[in-house]
Design brief:
Elements lengths: L1 H17 L5 H6 L5 H11 L5 H12 L14 H36 L4 H15 L2 H15 L23 H7 L3 H38 L2 H8 L4 H12 L1 H26 L4 H10 L3 H29 L11
Helix pairs in contact: 1-14, 5-6, 5-9, 5-12, 6-9, 7-9, 7-12, 8-9, 9-11, 9-12, 12-13, 12-14, 13-14
Length: 329
Amino acid sequence: MAIFTLIGVTALIFVMAQVIPADPARIAAGPGAGKAQVEALRQAMGLDRPVPEQFLRYLSGLTRLDLGRSIRTQQPVLNDIVQFLPASLELIFFSFAIYIVLGLSLGVLAAVNHNNAVDLIIRVGSIVAFAVPIYVLGLWLQYGLYFQLDWFPGGGRLDILTSPPPRVTGFYLIDSLWAGNLPLFFEALHHITLPALTLLLGLIAVATRLTRAGMLTELRSKYIQVARLKGLPERTVIIKHALRNSLIPVVTLMGLQFGYLIGGAVIVETIFQWPGIGLYLFRAISALDYVPVIGVTLIVTFIFVTVNLLLDLIYPLLDPRIAVWGERR
């Protein structure tokens, strides 16, 4: 199924790229090129062949990990992705980890304090955070916490004059710790904070409300009453029993929202000039360079499908009645 999904997405993006009102051969040749040069380049790029043949050639290239060549950077798209992907993955995984912790914690806190001041504050805050578009939130945070208060840097992964750590994973937070450079770690952490907050605040709102709703349902269940009558500690009742049994819809939501994180990274990376594939994709679209657009979309789809497959494997851990293939035992 995952393979068919990747092929389907590739076909869709490939067809959409054909209707873009731009001539890749003309763009690659430059504004000063003559018709003969453009036509020769079009033949060299295979753009004079029928679209189905171009698509089959592209699929054939994928089997050799050939994603084409970017007109803008004059580099193989795979090389560009390898260069820019770690920055995006660091931002996304860092945001996702905080999103899981805060989303679950606030949802549990709201449910335990049902209908009191804490619950009201969390619910109102969730509504406000969800209502603000991600690009507006990013600009607000950048203006307030960078331009006005100067608490956080306005963009980039590190200060301009700072050298990155020796590359091991491409994640500056991990690589700086691996190198034993704590000042560099805290600088990287300082830089990633604002983009991560922009990316995750709206998602936390949804996870919080869903966790709260699931927890309220479980806390009213008879088995919870029995557990309390047996004298189990309240912490055990809430975390081990109520929270665990309310997590399945939350895990499903998190898998879907991981895709939102990837899509939101394009906006966030553009606002904060974060050098990841989101910014790379934005610049490719701006330059009408459709080959990187197809390659990045394919890689992003692969990551999204992989993450959701991994989340499917978590279901049996939450509910032993669910088999790995999704059927109840």
